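Margin note from the TA: students keep mixing up input and output lines. Inputs are the sequences; the output is the structure of the whole complex. Example:
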Amino acid sequence: MATQGPIHDPETIVDPMIDPRTGEYAVVAPGHNFKSVTQKIASIVLTANTPLAMWGGLFFAMTVALGVVVGVTWLVLKGVGIWGVTIPGAWGFAIINFVWWIGIGHAGTLISAILLLFKQTWRNSINRFAEAMTIFAVVCAGIYPLLHIGRPWLGYWLLPYPNTMNVWPQFRSPLAWDVFAVSTYATISVVFWYIGMVPDFGTLRDRAKLPLAKYLYGMLSLGWRGSTRHWIRYESASLLLAGLSTPLVLSVHTTISFDFAVAAMAGWHTTIFPPYFVAGAVYSGFAMVLTLAIPIRKFYHLEDLVTLRHLDNMAKVMLATGSIVAYGYGMEVFMSWYSASHWEFFMMWNRMFGPMGWAYWILILTNIAIPLTTLWSRKLRVNPGYLFFLSFVVNIGMWFERFVIVVTSLYRDYLPSSWGTYRATKWDYMLFIGTWGMFATLFLTFVRLAPMIPMSEIKMILPQTKVRRGGADAEQVVQEAL
Amino acid sequence: MPPIEGVYGLLAEFNTPSELVHATEEARRAGYRRMECYTPYPVEEAAEALHFHKTGVPLMCLVGGLMGLVTGYGLEVWINVWGYPLNIAGRPLFSWPAFVIPGYEWTILFAGLSAAFGMLAQNGLPQLYHPLFNAPNFRDGALQDKFFLCLEAHDPKFSRKESRDFLEQFSPVSIVEVDH
């Protein structure tokens, strides 16, 4: 194929994945056509044998997920007193984990919506599982506020509905805004994700051999038949959903930051919170996409479709959002001095050098020092092993960011007589670790049963799609495109 | 009931989008109107060849969004000013800036659902049965790697023999008569 650039020096081995014109890695490996892409992706789902490692992974994930079952059951029996939340540290793990999980979800929406609007076609191969990651992360996030309200079985009281008690929600509270922001986010994400999968379910329906698979994918595909008029409306709806999801994803984390910023609490009451929360969310979300993408592309041999170009680009996004986060940290420190407020100054001193100062320095190490120094190197950005390691580092860092914000602001507030401390209990840890298992269970099930890479969208970026007037045959078109 | 008993149309199969677009343009020029292309991914040139430009999806999305805005914001105002007025730290009952976020979220919620379900409704989906699925080669390729043009029997210009001859000149992989 023509990707083999002119080799002047026979000693140099030209990597076929590198485009000779741009020096960039290709988005799709050369030599793929409509059929090979379909076969590659559909065979992962339609095979009758589930790999043993998949069963093992699923079993392990479900075992860990039992933590949620046990943790929630005991909580419902005993009440939130089993958690470490107390006065003054009334928010604790429940809010930390809520913000952490929902932040992870934001990268999925960014990839599927914002990058679509910017016509970044490289996103086509990673958007599906990034969206799945979003939905599963929102599921994990949603558990926490629901449990934290104390009587989760009355959670529906948060919604405005006519009731015999004749009471209604109070819309001047950021916590009521959260209900709307998160529920809208979950709904729109699920719709966007499902609508995106409809044509691919059609492909699976046509290729499936088992009657049950034919039936199920047939139902899920809604009878999609690839009609051009359908496609045009479909594309129109996809663009609109992307256009709507973009302000939505920004507003969701903004609203979550308002939970903090609206409160008159030193360390929370700042205007920088919305942009800095959104950047942090995208930062951790891309880290999670890397955590998932790197083992999956290896396991299913998808290096042709999720190439080093994708890893490189995701690392670049992390570098950019990480820098915004670093700016946010710097500005917090600066403002605590510049505000000339005794309380702000004390909060920052306490955050850095108080009894929980170690958490702040872990945060600086894992969120700033390690990633923002190494991601400048292209060698490291295209090294899957290093990126896999780094994705964990960043997600640990982002978890500590929320820990620092929630705990160190609360436990020593204005009145020294009300100072206390915060210590998470085993139930806090059990539920948190359990949500990882739940997330992994959902994700592995998705990878096995649904097309994790959008077939129709990959086809759109193949060179064969070019239409030549006068009815040229495919070979000619391919030759020209290369 | 179709004009020709038992026939939905003639389905021509092509290997490349270029051939499909060419055949569609020519069919349009020859006077065919009731026809449709079937492709594994959106081919905008095929839509141009069919002279299909305007979709109703953006309008439905706009109307849905406005409905969401009015519903959400109106609900908040009614609840906090009339339905269940509460004095929260002396703030005005009509605290309009605080109501912006839920109103905004419902705008997006309604607009998104209108766009998605409106698109499905306009496409007539879900429709699990369609005559095209009777064509033996359609399900082998339509959503994988083949490009189809279907001249429908509804078209006044449609005729079993002449339409087949017409399609024959583009040398498709196959031409199949689709049962109804």
